# Entry
Amino acid sequence: MKRIQARIKTPFGEVVIEGETPKEILSMLETMPANFVEKLSDFVSDRLMPSGVQLKGIVELTTEGPVIVTREKLTHYEAVGLVLYASEDKTNTAAQVTKLLESSGIKSMVPARLNEMTKRGQVFKPNPSKPDFKLTIQGEKWIEEEVLSKLRGKMS
# Structure
């Protein structure tokens, strides 16, 4: 017998449900939890997709580097952290972060913020003889668990 499909478009792709009859598809849909698509979307974005997808509507990747596009109020620390988080290898120089924040419409004393973030354990210099700063694991967790979740909560 021929199978029928129900295709459900979601923000992350498409969910396909198959069955022998329309009644079978409806009964499958009835067994799904009310927030199934949201849970699946969160799972996909957290585990399977690059961080760029998590940053949609918050940071935009340009040829210059990551630029903050959210209109939500950010502290200078959050802005610096987001730019580093979205940068290649989560690493960038103070001068480049300053330039990217200016492109984002944010004026900040980046070297001072990076110095304070180093004391907090959020960033470090992988090579002291180079001007690069990199987010620590603690810094990445701070961006993911506090900053991005706060911003996503305000966007939805």
